[in-house]
Amino acid sequence: MPDAAWKQRERKLAAFFGVLRTVGSGSSYRTGKLPGSSETLRTRADIEHPVLFAECKLRKKHSTWTLFRKTRGHANTEGKIPVVALAEKGKPGLLLVIHTDDFDAVMIERLRVLKGDRWLSRLDLEPRPRNTGVDSREDSGALPRPAREHRNASGTI
């Protein structure tokens, strides 16, 4: 019998972060060993990660996806990477919505702010072409994929 669609998405999320899906997450704690480690893990998260607590929600439709698709259309017109920032009035912080295809490129931009271009130039980062076409992969669950890269006005990545 094939896996339920939500289990497949949880496995893809786990693979994205290089870990395993948590069996029975949410309904009960699972105690076990991390792969290649003697560390015991006990979590209700959907993935077995020592640092991240991740939940994967599969729904027919999310309003956040509707907002993201609109933002992506505008970003593609300008050759930029779409990022949606959600905020609540009177609450600190932002919730960032980033497509997994763009995660690495967004992370590089954040590192550029924190560490500077000189530090990043020492890393082995190969340029990848930016796909500005309409993307329908959000419903396919295709994870992971190479990140798109953003080029600034000077043409550097």
Q: Strands, helices and their partners?
A:
Blueprint (H helix, E strand, L loop, with lengths): L4 H12 L3 E2 L8 E4 L6 E4 L3 E2 L14 H16 L5 E3 L8 E3 L5 H13 L1 H5 L36
Antiparallel strand pairs: 1-4, 2-3, 5-6
Task: Provide the descriptors you would attach to this structure in a database record.
alpha+beta; 2 domains; two-stranded antiparallel sheet; 4 helices; globular; disordered C terminus
Folded structure, characterized:
- This protein is an alpha+beta fold.
- It folds into 2 domains: 5-48, no CATH class; 63-139, no CATH class.
- The chain is built from 4 helices and 6 strands.
- A two-stranded antiparallel sheet has the order 1-4. A two-stranded antiparallel ribbon has the order 2-3.
- The longest helix is centred in the middle third of the chain and has 16 residues, at 63-78.
- Residues 134-157 have low confidence and may be disordered.
